[in-house]
Amino acid sequence: MYRNLKASPIMNNMTLFSKHRTIVATVFLMAVLGELNADEIRRVEHADGRVEYTNVKSKNQPRASTRDETVYRYTDQQGVVSYSNQRPSNTDFDVIRFACYACDPESNVDWHNTPLFLSPYREEILAAAREFDVDPALVRAVIHAESAFRPEALSPVGAQGLMQLMPQTAEELGVRNPLKAEENIQGGVNYLAKMLKRFNGDTRLATAAYNAGPGAVGRYKGVPPYAETKAYVKRVGILHQRYAAN
Predict the structure, then answer these.
(1) Which of 34, 120, 144, 241 makes a 20 to 30 Å CA pair with 232?
(2) Helix ranges (DSSP H) in the chain
């Protein structure tokens, strides 16, 4: 999912980027960024091949809504998905609430003792886990890590729903409405099962691939050395053990 920096009143806090090595067409970028001064845009190429174009001066990624500021996502009159800290008028919008729950390396959550979600979506999780032969405790751990069991979760990068499916991934998995819990779980567990199969049942590598992409795991022959991914894998592992014990 890409950002229209010019269209947003919070353009100074937004980043245009690709996730999981999406190829960015030069013509598209020129169209999006053409009206911004060249010295306002930085090109950042990550070790896993992801490329970002940003006018953010710090290394911080775009943030979701905070206690002091609400971020809105909407489609402008040109059909471009845009972000703003001003509530759009005369158009539908979504409130971007937070990013991946367990991905922040600086999180103060005590993952060994934080309350578990033992009851929500019990039938949906069991059905998908049986269909794709995945441990339901692992499914519950991933949902906890991704969205803290919030079906309406929307991240700044465009990930949606309980298992934070990216739009392209959701489409490939046949998920029509990522914000519908049953469909999201079905698609997310399907993808998780593919990662488990690809990495011979290794849950650490499979969850690393769920977070950073299977290509990155393959290139590094293990969990990629990204702080976010390392934190995510560790926390999913803790949650998996705790859900399995309940």
Answers:
(1) 120
(2) 26-33, 122-132, 136-147, 167-172, 181-198, 203-212, 214-220, 227-244
The tens digit of pLDDT for each residue in 121-172 reads 999 999 999 999 999 999 999 999 999 999 988 887 778 999 999 898 999 9
CATH numeric code, 122-244: 1.10.530.10
- Catalytically active residues are 146
Q: Indicate if the pLDDT at residue 206 is higher than 90.
A: yes
| Residue among 58, 79, 187, 66 nearest 134 (CA) | 187
Give the Cα separation of 227 and 224 in Å (integer).
Answer: 9
Other Cβ atoms less than 10 A from the Cβ of 6: the count is 14
* Domain limits, CATH 1.10.530.10, in the chain: 122-244
Distance CA(223)–CA(189), nearest Å, equals: 20
pTM: 0.65
